[in-house]
């Protein structure tokens, strides 16, 4: 019954959590009127600074191939919410599913599309500022080979839309983005511009070609020290050493991105020509036929949730009895309240250097067990996500097909 699901925006229902991060959660959902599958992002209204409403505004303003659709956004109860197009697996998912070994052809086709998506965004006055393979997703069905760019929560304008006046050079900035793929300029506190997005793409390209980057897997507990170590490792690793074993064009691309000036307009066609040169030399076509086509075909990005059943305290006379249910009951999130704003996806982050960071303005979270609490007709429903416990109770697995 649809009444057994939380409803938002009047016609969208949340069905299963499929991901999230430090700043919110993503649910698989559906449109009750059209029965279409959607992705629904939730962010607490207490998040400082808020991202989701601004992200929805940015995505709506962007036009072009590989930009997801936003169906609805707004605030209800204690949450900022956005319903958007449901997409397929991320580039990181595809990479991991192939044992972190993919062909040069697939790496080139992914990089070529990433450059195109970033050019589309840059041409409309924005920079992304969080380049990583998790933020590029394949489409579904007939668009299974098309790559989309997502997560514009950290995006900002690098120039004024009407006058095209570029932002002024600033430094002493905190690191914003994902340390593993961040540019050296970003590490060094220089305000990011178009060149930084492109440098991040080339790091992703090298990551796909070689399977890892030299600054991965550093065992340093203090995050500031770890990010500084990543920066020094990047500084001390020459382009030649970093690109060893890769086609020569990769070093050309990295040197090109590193050499761009603060306000310089990148030559995206030149970058794509370098990728095409690899294809010609290695005798393959950039035909968008990936080796994992079957992996993504006809499937959504919905993952099998690993969540406990929920305990519902129900008042019965003077006693409180706990019963077990499979889902929260409620037609709207008006009474949803959050005890703690947490980062449930931390268990999903393989390396801290692949975790998005936003300067020093974001709070640190230590208790990550309780995620949301819902109140409905004096009943309190506590959800608890426990990711890697032996005695784990799971919902009946639900396969979702587009």
UniProtKB/TrEMBL annotation:
UniProt binding sites for ATP: 41
Record key words, sorted: ATP-binding, Kinase, Nucleotide-binding, Serine/threonine-protein kinase, Transferase
Name of the top EC class for this enzyme: transferase
UniProt cross-references to SUPFAM superfamilies, sorted A to Z: Protein kinase-like (PK-like)
GO molecular function: ATP binding; protein serine/threonine kinase activity
Any matching Pfam family: Pkinase
Residue ranges of domain Protein kinase in the record: 12-278
Record EC number: 2.7.11.1
Domain of life: Eukaryota
Family: Belongs to the protein kinase superfamily.
Protein name from the UniProt record: Casein kinase I
Source organism of this protein record: Blepharisma stoltei
């Amino acid at each position: 019954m649809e009444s057994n699901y939380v409803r938002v925006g009047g016609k969208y229902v949340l069905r299963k959590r499929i991901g999230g991060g430090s700043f919110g959660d993503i649910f698989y959902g559906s449109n009750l009127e059209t029965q279409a599958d959607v992705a629904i992002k939730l962010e607490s209204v207490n998040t400082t600074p808020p991202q989701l409403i601004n992200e929805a505004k940015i995505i709506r303003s962007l036009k072009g191939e590989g930009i997801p659709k936003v169906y609805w956004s707004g605030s209800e109860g204690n949450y900022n919410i956005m319903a958007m197009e449901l997409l397929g697996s991320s580039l990181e998912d595809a990479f991991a599913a192939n044992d972190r070994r993919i062909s040069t052809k697939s790496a080139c086709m992914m990089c070529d599309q990433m450059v195109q998506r970033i050019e589309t965004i840059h041409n409309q006055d924005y920079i992304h500022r969080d380049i990583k393979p998790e933020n590029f997703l394949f489409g579904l069905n007939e668009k299974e080979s098309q790559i989309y760019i997502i997560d514009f929560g950290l995006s900002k304008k690098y120039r004024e839309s009407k006058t095209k006046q570029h932002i002024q050079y600033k430094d002493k900035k905190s690191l914003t983005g994902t340390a593993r793929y961040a540019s050296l300029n970003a590490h060094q506190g220089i305000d990011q511009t178009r060149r930084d997005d492109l440098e991040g793409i080339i790091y992703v390209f090298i990551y796909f070609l070689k399977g890892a980057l030299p600054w991965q897997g550093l065992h340093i507990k203090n995050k500031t020290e770890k990010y500084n170590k990543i920066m020094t490792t990047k500084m001390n690793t020459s382009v030649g050493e970093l690109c060893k074993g890769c086609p020569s064009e990769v070093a050309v691309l990295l040197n090109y991105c590193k050499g761009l000036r603060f306000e310089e307009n990148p030559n995206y066609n030149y970058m794509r020509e370098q990728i095409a040169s690899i294809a010609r030399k290695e005798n393959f076509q950039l035909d968008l036929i990936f080796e994992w086509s079957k992996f993504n075909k006809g499937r959504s990005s919905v993952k099998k949730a690993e969540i406990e059943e929920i305990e519902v305290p129900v008042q019965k006379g003077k006693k409180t009895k706990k019963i077990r249910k499979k889902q929260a009951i409620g037609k709207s999130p008006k009474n949803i309240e959050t005890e703690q704003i947490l980062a449930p996806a931390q268990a999903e982050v393989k390396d801290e250097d692949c975790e998005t960071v936003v300067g020093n303005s974001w709070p640190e979270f230590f208790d990550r067990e309780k995620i949301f609490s819902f109140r409905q007709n004096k009943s309190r429903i506590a959800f608890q996500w426990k990711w890697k416990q032996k005695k784990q109770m799971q919902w009946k697995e639900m396969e979702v097909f587009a």
